[in-house]
Design goal:
149 residues, alpha+beta, 4 helices, 6 strands, globular
């Protein structure tokens, strides 16, 4: 389901996660980690980015990024400064290319211990991919409300 082999499935606006990010995202130029932001553990980018956003007020971004020595895009999360620069508290050194979608924290926060992802939410059949992003955000919030009961 994550990859729709170039075809849009009935009931979905996007062909998959990559299609969503390409259509709704933008480039973010990397910036060195500011001294007031703590470097966080590798392989925990989604949690690291949420914590940094909650502590600093920076925006939460999810999409794809390339490591300095990498050639393959990696699903990743980082923060965006008010000027629109990528602030990455996880990767050291900072990646060379960032392309993603800014998400409101209301869509990203999950109950403690939850492993759900706003982009790769296969447990709820990818609600973010069902409608155009402005409507999709409402669908995700609705699905979150339903899963709490």
């Amino acid at each position: 389901m994550r990859y729709f082999a170039g075809n849009r499935l009935a009931g979905y606006h996007y062909q998959g996660i990559g299609d969503f990010v390409l259509r709704e995202g933008r480039f973010f130029e990397p910036e060195p980690l500011p001294i007031n932001i703590k470097r966080r553990p590798i392989q925990h980018c989604f949690r690291n980015t949420l914590r940094t956003a909650m502590k600093t007020g920076l925006r939460y971004v999810k999409g794809y990024a390339l490591l300095v020595d990498g050639a393959t895009p990696t699903l990743h999360a980082w923060n965006a400064s008010p000027d629109g620069f990528a602030i990455d508290a996880t990767w050291d050194p900072t990646g060379k290319i960032y392309f993603g979608v800014v998400f409101p924290l209301s869509l990203v926060r999950r109950p403690k211990g939850s492993l759900l992802s706003v982009l790769d939410d296969w447990q709820r059949e990818w609600p973010i991919l069902r409608e155009p992003f402005c409507n999709s955000a409402k669908a995700v919030e609705s699905a979150q409300q339903e899963s709490r009961f």
